[in-house]
Amino acid sequence: LLELDPYSADVAARICTNCLETNLQDIQMMRSVGYFLLKAGRPSMGLAILDHVRELSPVEPQSFLDGALARTLRLLGGEFCEESLRKAVQLTTIVLTHVWADRFSEVEWPALILLHMLCQIGERSGITDLWPQSVDAGFWTMG
Length: 143
Description:
The protein has helices spanning 6-22, 27-39, 43-56, 61-76, 82-97, 108-124. With 143 residues, it is mainly alpha-helical. The protein is flat and about 45 Å long. The model has no long low-confidence stretch (mean pLDDT 87).
C-alpha cells in the first residue's frame, strides 16, 4: 500500500505517530513506530524516534542496534554520509563490547555481521579506518 500511493504513506505516518501519544514511554511501540516511519519514507523521523528509544532504554542492546540498522538502511539506500556511517559503527561497537544481561547472550552475532557490512560500505567509499580497536581484529578478515 505504501508503494502504491504516496498520500497513503503520509496518512499512515500521521496515524502511526499518533500511536505514540497513547503511551509515550512504551519502548516497543516507539520501536515499531520508528521502523514503520523508515518504511514509509520518513527516515529522519524514524531515526529520531529510534535514537530516543536508546536514551530511554540503554540497558537493551537492541536500542543500539536499532540506531545502527536505521543508519545502515539510509547508507544502503544511497544516502552516504561518513558521519552517519561512523555513528552506526560506534553504536554497533557498543553492542559488541558492553556486558549485557544474560538474556542477550547472542546479540554479538548480528552486531558482528552488521559491523562487517558497515566496514565494507566504508571501504567502497575509501574509508578504511572503521574497524574499532576495541573489537578483536581477528574478526575482520576481508579477502
